[in-house]
Amino acid sequence: MMNWGQFGLQDANSPIMEELIFLHDFINMVLVFIISFVGYIMISMVYNKYINMNLLESQMIECIWTIIPAIILIQIAMPSLLLLYMLDESVDSALTMKVLGHQWYWSYEYTDFWSMSNNTQIEFDSYMIPVNELEDNMFRLLDVDNRTTVPFNVHIRMLISSADVLHAWTVPSLGVKADAVPGRLNQVKFVGQRPGIFFGQCSEICGANHSFMPIVMEIVSPSSFLNWVVCMYE
Length: 234
Fold this sequence. Notes:
Blueprint: H1 15-47, H2 53-56, H3 59-87, E1 95-102, E2 105-115, E3 120-126, E4 148-151, E5 155-162, E6 167-171, E7 176-180, E8 186-191, E9 196-202, E10 214-220, H4 222-233
Parallel strand pairs: 1-5, 4-10
Antiparallel strand pairs: 1-2, 2-3, 5-8, 6-7, 6-9, 9-10
Helix pairs in contact: 1-3
Family: Belongs to the cytochrome c oxidase subunit 2 family.
InterPro entries: CcO_II, CcO_II-like_C, CcO_II_C, Copper_CuA, Cupredoxin, Cyt_c_oxidase_su2, Cyt_c_oxidase_su2_TM_dom, Cyt_c_oxidase_su2_TM_sf
Subcellular location: Mitochondrion inner membrane
């Protein structure tokens, strides 16, 4: 959850987001070290009257400022590559959902649940609540009329596509972002580690109302999720 004036990323609610935050902090630490060191060298060379040509053109200096940056780049590349493989890791999912982007709202289908009585599955559209209909406990430009409900500590697979133009389904606290491309299925996987309400938005400019198609994901206990599924069929 973000607080007013907070600087940084949202609190992680998935293992992937925890790794993304760690990589972000690690790279920032390296950048601070590089900027400080280079700034110190530049200032010391400006005010040091004993710098001479032999020091600036030394073979040892050339080796040092070639090897050290290479080592730093390797230290950044290794966790980055590891994280890329983690993002693409394929695991068995306990729940699969389909997300379809529209101009300008999202529609959701719970393909794992099917009602034999009326031969239907759970599906609904999710529209942003207009400002003039907001209640005191709602967030402007973020709340929707139908929240996406999923259980926590369960592997979730989201199949993402679009019915018209390019969209992007993004929930920062879960560390997931995937383009919704017409005629193509993209997928993301995540595990919600704790219950709560988490917000996202479309992250691909898709038209005049691009900023008015938010995402609200309500993560609940597995038993509460099953009760919600039963209520959806009633």
